[in-house]
Amino acid sequence: MLGRGASARQGSARPLAAPRTLPSLPRPCRRCLRVRAAKVAGKPLPTSAKQAVEEGLEAFNGRKDYDEALRLFQAAMDLQPSEPEAVAALYNAGCAHAKRKEWQQASDAILRAVNEYNLKLSVALADKDLRELRDTREWLDMLTEAKGGLSREQKIKLRTEAKAPFRLARTSIFGGLAAGAGLGLLIIIGRLVKSLQGGPDAPPLQESLTNLGINAAAVAVLAFFLIRDLRSSEADTKVTSREEALSRLLIKLGPERSLPLIRFRGVVRPIIVAGDRSYVERAVKAAEQYQTALRARGVSVVPVVYTDDPNAKLRALKKELQQKPSSAKGFGRGADGGGGGGEGEELAEGAGIGNSESLTEEDRKWRLEPAAVGEWEEWIQQQKEFAGLERVQRNVWVQIQLDGTVRASDVGSPPWARFVADLPPLDSFKTKVTDGIGPSV
């Protein structure tokens, strides 16, 4: 939580497209209205932003009444608050929304506090009340819009350049040389025209033809390398954009808990197995004999069963019922369904992209269940089109590296034995050097 005297970061803020107000609260029940009316009747309504913020903090911290806290923080914003009071009202409203698991409203409130009132983002990064919010897609989206943050396009550009660190320098050098050679070619063409016209001051024809050939060849060679690098950059940008889209896909860790795949970056090597249920189950079962070795390498299986599978809806319903003890009759054992959880080193805490502070040892399961399967299917279709697999077979696998890059994809059963042979253990020096592990961004 943030009090009235919260410090503000200096510097010009990047204004939003249009000022946003705090999201409206859901309509309470009649009984709640009567209780709230009784409270209001016994205590005068705030007459200043300062009083509204203080009463809102008391409702938040003292009574844990997040509905009332939101109402008071909204009232503070309507009472012409000073900048510190506006920061406190918006920020604490974001905390209250987070407690209610209203992730979008919470992110919007924090974003306004950062962009419009110069709140330091580090305050939100360290607040325990926002711990769950920081593991949501809404939070990741907010970071791309926050003042001083990186937009999604900038992230894609930086990751693309990191894959080929010398390409930008080559492009600049080849571009400059090609421009110089092109200018020289224009001058030589003028001299060649004079040579063909003849006259006492005309340059020798042979010399002009020789210079023309040399400069034309230089322009052609430099243009070839320049165009090759530009096309390679465009292709890498598309790949990186698809990998960033992959990082936003959700993993379901419980009935009410989902994390974007990016939160597993740096600690898990996902292998996506996508197709009909029979294919997925066979592929996962074939991996069981290698499970210990694969877990030592950080491998987790993400089984994506296509939604057009005739039995998919029935099985999904059974799994949902199994997760509710009161409705689990008649459906055998639990819904984990796959090989048990692996063991590994304890995860580091942090607020960055990988090594999420909310990841537990149990979260690094052998089998990670996808949420919002339709989004996974859409991404897999894009990957199949890129790899030229869309017309071959609908059942595919995709191997992801620790840094979120796609290492390989193909049809048929995943080559589990080859994965064991090719992938180094998580604690090896080779993993740290070759698999993109570094400081959290």
From TrEMBL:
The keyword Secreted does not apply. It comes from the Eukaryota. TPR repeats lie at residues 50-83. Keywords: Membrane, TPR repeat, Transmembrane, Transmembrane helix. Residues 331-342 have a biased composition (Gly residues). Residues 1-22, 320-364 are annotated as: Disordered. The chain crosses the membrane at residues 168-189, 209-227. PROSITE patterns: TPR. This is Low PSII accumulation, chloroplastic. It comes from Raphidocelis subcapitata. The lineage of its organism: Eukaryota, Viridiplantae, Chlorophyta, core chlorophytes, Chlorophyceae.
